[in-house]
Amino acid sequence: MTRLNKLLLVPYILWLGIFIIIPILLLIYFSLTDSAGHWSLSNYHQILSWQYVKMFSTSMIYAFIITFITLLVSYPAAYYVAQSRHQQMLLLILIVPTWINLLLKTYAFIGIFSHDGIINRLLQAVHLPELNILFTGPAFVVVAVYIYIPFMILPIFNSLRDIPHQLIQAASDLGATPWTTFRKVIFPLSLKGVMTGVQVTFIPALSLFMITRLIAGNKVINIGTAIEEQFLVIQNYGLGSAIALVLVIFMVLVLIVTQVTQREGRG
């Protein structure tokens, strides 16, 4: 049985090696070479320039804003679903949008935000001035929040659903107000779901590039668009690999921080 269990690991190990370990090793190699193929740290020196420091800062600010707004919208929604008698139907409504192709949803928002889109037509109907929504930072944030809301709601819902009702009833019997019950019982016990939702939102939000290109145009330049530009446009594989490695390291740090926060919350 032990030998069979080891054999069952072989496909996963092959997959891990071919699609994760080998690409990361290639990134490390290219990041440490210059355009002539010689060993060099010039790519990392370039990352330390003000242009790239500003880009990394902008990416983190947008990722934080997207994550914060997503959490602000998702937590009340998850709480309502967890308390509802129609959980299955509400969960289905939340999950169905994730089945739609991301590119289709992005183009749908282009139609909504464009000069001749639904919003500007409604403004024209009530004789209000038109708005330039498309190709702006706020439009990018709105679309990103819409995309990540289901991924934030689901882990929070699972954590809220697992809270024993007896604990909430006991807090009420001991004289705790609804706000105190939420602050002292419900939120701490749902912190694991919150941290999971933050992970699956903040980390991908750092490297968005398709939505950034289509919705924000050139108004928002983040890590994802920089990597895309270096690999596909400029074809500077060394600098692109260095930026990608820095992003991977930062993602690992975010995972570590959220894991530590989860342990402290359980403590």
From TrEMBL:
<dbReference type="InterPro" id="IPR035906">
    <property type="entry name" value="MetI-like_sf"/>
</dbReference>
<keyword id="KW-0812">Transmembrane</keyword>
<keyword id="KW-1133">Transmembrane helix</keyword>
<comment type="similarity">
    <text>Belongs to the binding-protein-dependent transport system permease family. CysTW subfamily.</text>
</comment>
<feature type="transmembrane region" description="Helical">
    <location>
        <begin position="60"/>
        <end position="82"/>
    </location>
</feature>
<feature type="transmembrane region" description="Helical">
    <location>
        <begin position="133"/>
        <end position="157"/>
    </location>
</feature>
<feature type="transmembrane region" description="Helical">
    <location>
        <begin position="193"/>
        <end position="216"/>
    </location>
</feature>
<protein>
    <submittedName>
        <fullName>ABC transporter permease</fullName>
    </submittedName>
</protein>
<keyword id="KW-1003">Cell membrane</keyword>
<keyword id="KW-0813">Transport</keyword>
<keyword id="KW-0472">Membrane</keyword>
<keyword id="KW-0921">Nickel transport</keyword>
<feature type="transmembrane region" description="Helical">
    <location>
        <begin position="12"/>
        <end position="32"/>
    </location>
</feature>
<feature type="domain" description="ABC transmembrane type-1">
    <location>
        <begin position="56"/>
        <end position="258"/>
    </location>
</feature>
<keyword id="KW-0533">Nickel</keyword>
<feature type="transmembrane region" description="Helical">
    <location>
        <begin position="89"/>
        <end position="113"/>
    </location>
</feature>
<dbReference type="InterPro" id="IPR000515">
    <property type="entry name" value="MetI-like"/>
</dbReference>
<keyword id="KW-0406">Ion transport</keyword>
<dbReference type="Pfam" id="PF00528">
    <property type="entry name" value="BPD_transp_1"/>
</dbReference>
<feature type="transmembrane region" description="Helical">
    <location>
        <begin position="236"/>
        <end position="257"/>
    </location>
</feature>
